[in-house]
Input
Amino acid sequence: MESYLQNLKDNCLKITPRRKAVIDIFVSNGSRMGPYDVYGKLKKRLSTIGLPTVYRILSELKDIGILVQSISEDRQLRYSLCTLPDVHHHHFTCRKCSKIEEVEFCNFKGVSRFIEKKFNAKVEAHQVQIEGLCSECK
Amino acid sequence: MESYLQNLKDNCLKITPRRKAVIDIFVSNGSRMGPYDVYGKLKKRLSTIGLPTVYRILSELKDIGILVQSISEDRQLRYSLCTLPDVHHHHFTCRKCSKIEEVEFCNFKGVSRFIEKKFNAKVEAHQVQIEGLCSECK
DNA sequence: CTGCCTGCAAATAATTTGCAAAGTA
DNA sequence: TACTTTGCAAATTATTTGCAGGCAG
Output
């Protein structure tokens, strides 16, 4: 938790009860949640919190690398704790329970070289979405 | 094109100018398009077409397997032709001119094995979005 | 004190739906 | 003709924004 608060400071974001509560919900809950899920859990502790604030905080925490944003099957926002903030990685999402595993293995370089050679292009970024069934849902 | 029309018939969907035009746009254009892109292209030929109709047709064509639906980074719907002998491939998109190149090279197997081993999971699908600058925009 | 934070209300925008008129088989 | 398709307008709904008052540093 300390490192999250330090991360906030490093990024000129003030440490407020709302922000702490959002982080805490992810730390103690662990899973993948949408803004409304988070809002529901927050309401119990901070009854005056508003949904727009939740959206804003989630987006900020994503920007500074505390959360990972993803898009669920129903096209809505989902967030989960990012455990590998500084390492290039991708995410494996379970199709049944929506759990996310972070995958630090990436052999994209080969594809990148292939593209740059074949199309004489410059590859600047890549995103990989991997789906399947986790060990429990399998 | 004939097989697409047969597919419509097989699924009790009538062959209408709108549906033919939508399929034709994907066949002659090849790439990944959102409802509004398709609408724009249709407007030129069928000036009275409405956006809801485009949404409906795209959804129907997805249901019968002519199109593949996906969700783009900006959380909007995207469709592309489902090439029947399903040649696995990805897309490289130019950040400047939006041109799309199809990339048939994929070394994802390694990643897949890594995930299945490490998390004891079953990998079922993956999507890769590659961005950069094409030869002309570079 | 000095901005950043937040709640509220309202705006935005993609996607869907209801329904009457038009088209297909 | 019988039933499907479509255009239009309106509804829906997740997400975003403006702004006045509140709070962290």
